[in-house]
Amino acid sequence: MLINSVILVLREVLEAAMVISVLLALSMHLRIPLRWLWLALPFTLVFTLLFAGNLDTMTDAFDGAGQEVVSASLQVLVFFCLLAVVFLAQRQRVRASDPVAQLPWIMALAVVCALVREGSEILIYIIGFATSEQHRTAVFAGSAVGAGIGVSLGVLLYAALRALPVNFASNVCYLLLAFIGAGMVMQSTMLLEQVDWLLAGEQLWDSSFLISEHSITGQLLYAVFGYEATPGINQVLLYGASLAAVVMAWWLAGFVGGKADDK
Amino acid sequence: MKRLLALFTLLFWPALSHAATPIFEIEIRGHLFQPEEIRIPENTKVKLIVYNRDSTPEEFESYELNREKVIMGGRKANIFIGPLAPGIYPFFGEFNPKTAQGRVIVE
């Protein structure tokens, strides 16, 4: 039971920790005060409680597709937030202009949306076992260990991003955000296929013999790059398109709105 | 005319195929899947209805099928899978992975 709890909670925390670490590092590079994170946390808590508390009603909505539709919408919203973050952050950088006022708000929204689903899954899991005397201790301890490892990896990534030269580190942040965002879009398509809102395409390849999704490497790659061992054609196409969109936003930021050169 | 017909078929394919989607039912009882093995035809989309008869929540999860869904105690969940190539696709209950193990056999 203990090891199961460690793995389950670690999986959920890892993805959220990556998003927060990269946004925090980027925020520091751009000298944006970290108020936005403190603002995001209470909202995350409230929405997590709401999500977990209403999951059964939500599941039955839309003819049984509610859970997936809400989760997929949150993930797509995270993608658009990250897209906007890359665009606005890069624009602020190339123009050496004043901080863009919306940027911290968008970062906060991204964090709230990214955390709600993972948070409520952990909550449902822990509450489910809270009444079982047999498993309670193991589940609580395992969850704490899993969360600890996840947060530590997040701190490690943050420290690494902060240790790099600022310009280079910002580019690494954009790249990581692009991968995380594309991973979210890919996840959302699987959820929509799960409830038949999207037609499932053909499976394109099976790389599970190389890196299994069950393995630690697979889980880490999943958290950062949205790794899937057996993706369908929809997933691969949308993953590519999402990556391209972020890179495009990154590149366009230097041109759109003019006056990029005469700072 | 043929092209138009093809276009129509393409557009309404989801609706058409929906009507013929075979349904398979699985129960979760005592953190076990019953049955723990289901056989489905190849290259066919099917609808799984998973009933959680336990009072505790469970998460239906499968890396091979790319599916995951939390099912609260006493509730049910619809999960569409396929069309799939022949093979064995394991699934498990993420909250009780020691006991809740099952597989979809596509043939």
Task: Report the sheet-strand fraction of chain A.
Answer: under 5%
Structural class category of chain B? alpha+beta
Output mean pLDDT of chain A.
Answer: 92
Main sheet record of chain A: none
- What's the helix count of chain B? 1
Order of helices and strands of chain A: HHHHHHHHH
Which spans of chain A have pLDDT < 50 for at least 5 consecutive residues? none
The overall average pLDDT of chain B, rounded, is 89
Task: Assign the structural class of chain A, choosing from mainly alpha, mainly beta, alpha/beta, alpha+beta, or little secondary structure.
Answer: mainly alpha
Choose one word for the global shape of chain B: elongated
**Strand tally of chain B:** 9
Strand elements of chain A, count? 0
Largest sheet of chain B: 5 strands, mixed
Radius of gyration of chain B: 16 Å
**Largest inter-chain contact set:** A-B, 35 and 33 residues
Brief rundown of the structure:
The complex is a heterodimer of chains A (263) and B (107). Chain A is mainly α. Chain A is 78% helix and 0% strand.
Structure notes:
The complex is a heterodimer of chains A (263) and B (107). By secondary structure, chain A is mainly alpha-helical. Chain A has nine helices and no strands. The longest helix of chain A is centred in the middle third of the chain and has 31 residues, at 133-163. Chain A is globular and about 60 Å long. By secondary structure, chain B is of the alpha+beta class. Helices cover 17% and strands 47% of the residues of chain B. Chain B contains one helix and nine strands; from the N terminus they run H-E-E-E-E-E-E-E-E-E. Chain B has one helix at residues 2-19; strands at residues 23-29, 32-34, 37-40, 46-52, 58-62, 67-71, 76-81, 87-93, 101-106. Chain B has a five-stranded mixed beta sheet, with no helix packed on it. Chain B has a four-stranded mixed beta sheet with strand order 2-1-4-7, with no helix packed on it. In chain B, a hairpin with a 4-residue loop joins strand 5 and strand 6. The radius of gyration of chain B is 16 Å and the shape is elongated. Chain B starts with a helix and ends with a strand. The model of chain B has no long low-confidence stretch (mean pLDDT 89). The interface between A and B is medium-sized, with 35 and 33 residues.
